[in-house]
Design goal:
Order of helices and strands: HEHEHHHEHEHHHHEHEHHHEHHEH
Number of strands: 8
Distance between the termini: 36 Å
Structural class: alpha/beta
Oligomer: single chain
Radius of gyration: 21 Å
Strand order of the largest sheet: 2-1-3-4
Helix content: 40-55%
Length: about 425
């Protein structure tokens, strides 16, 4: 989805990680459609719901957030948002929710990823509480059950034993209720297998994103926005683990050969904060690339790497996603990424759809800028509604960031 040259638009090498990852992401939806056609139950699942649960139970699930991003990237976000707004939903609520609610009504993605209609919903609020009302509305509209895991915002730095016990109980409650509803049975051996693949996928993904520590980076940071779809939909599958390990290998080979998927000179390195502007992905990518700015790291990608060794470790991992932790913990995660990857600036997407994320970014980005000693610039936008983005504003802010980074380079020379 990022800007590509004509050479890059040629058919992909079927042995490449990019080809394999694209196939895995697409297969999640085709498998669910085929299961639905066979008469099996299919669910819609929030992106940070523990994927290990449906994977172990053998349930087919698809992801409305991924689908909404795909619809928006293909230019149909505004159309779908208008459908929901005509039904009375405010345009102040998340654009992913508006697109999803419209899709459930019209059953047509207008060029985006098609999804079978759900028989049940899997919801986890560790990324936002809007998710609960969105999925409740889907459940009411479609007259199907919603299975909720509540992971409270953690005002402490670490996950306490009390929080662990509270969330662990909910994991098991959802497992047992899904068993009763679907007729599928939990199997410990299957869970250990899924846990192993999830760990392999996550570790390889995090090692791959960490290759940005090399200067220049062996990849264009916008690659991560494409590849992370597999970490959302399929990280508990063997093919995902193998493809992520291949991606890590390819990035290391790029470094050894002095090559990169960033197809121009890397003059500046930045961290991108926030969800991508999917309707304007080409514009945002080009605005950076044309100035030799590589977005080498983002917490958005690393957030889908879950590293743990047992069931309790899994519970703790899902309690530690970026939007469920306090400002200090969230800041420190970002400072580590910024330091490890030698960034020279921070570009912050003030995302109208994501109030929680954007709300605390003003203070967090200030603290990151101070700790890492880099300039911070923000722009207004939206993850899926194209009406909330100004190309002129974005271009002006990126130009300003580049000029500050250039002046800093000259001062340190």
């Amino acid at each position: 989805m990022a800007e590509e040259t004509k050479k890059e638009r040629r058919p992909l090498d079927p042995n490449s990680a990019k080809y394999k990852l694209n196939q895995i992401a697409a297969k999640a939806y085709s498998d669910a459609a085929e299961a639905k056609a066979r008469g099996e139950m299919v669910g819609w699942c929030s992106s940070n719901f523990p994927v290990e649960i449906p994977e172990t139970l053998g349930l087919y699930v698809v992801y409305p957030e991924n689908q909404a991003a795909a619809i928006a990237a293909r230019g149909q976000g505004e159309h779908m948002c208008n459908i929901s707004e005509a039904d009375g939903y405010s345009n102040d609520i998340c654009a992913y929710a508006r697109i999803s609610l419209a899709y459930a009504k019209v059953k047509d993605s207008n060029g985006g990823q098609e999804m079978p209609q759900p028989d049940f919903l899997l919801c986890c609020n560790n990324i936002c509480n809007c998710m609960i009302k969105w999925y409740e509305d889907l459940a009411r509209q479609l007259q199907i059950p919603m299975f909720l895991i509540d992971i409270p915002f953690n005002s402490d730095y670490e996950v306490s034993d009390a929080q662990l016990a509270y969330v662990r109980a909910q994991f098991w409650d959802v497992i047992h209720r899904l068993e009763a509803f679907t007729g599928k049975k939990w199997n410990e051996e299957k869970y250990k297998e899924v846990m192993g693949y999830s760990g392999r996928s996550s570790r390889a993904w995090l090692r791959a994103t960490a290759k940005a520590q090399y200067e220049p980076s062996p990849f264009n940071g916008f690659d991560l926005l494409n590849h992370m779809a597999v970490m959302v939909t399929a990280r508990g599958k063997k093919e995902a683990a193998e493809a992520m390990e291949l991606l890590e290998k390819e990035y290391e080979e790029n470094h050894q050969k002095g090559e990169s998927t960033f197809r121009t000179e890397e003059k500046y390195r930045i961290m991108f904060e926030g969800i991508a502007c999917w309707p304007w992905l080409r514009v945002t990518a080009t605005g950076l690339k044309s100035r030799g700015i590589n977005m080498v790291t983002t917490i958005y990608a690393d957030a889908f790497g879950f590293v743990y060794d047992d069931f309790d470790g899994m519970v703790r991992a899902y309690c530690n996603v970026p939007n469920a932790i306090n400002l200090e913990h969230a800041r420190d995660k970002r400072v580590k990424l910024a330091t490890d990857n030698h960034i020279e600036g921070l570009l912050v997407h003030t995302n109208r759809s994501c109030k929680l994320w954007s709300g605390f970014m003003y203070e967090m980005s200030r603290q990151i800028g101070e700790k890492v000693d880099v300039p911070v610039v923000s722009f207004d936008g939206d993850q899926a509604d194209p009406r909330n983005f100004s190309e002129a504003q974005y271009d002006t802010r990126v130009q300003g960031l580049m000029e500050i980074m250039e002046a800093n380079k000259e001062a340190r020379a």
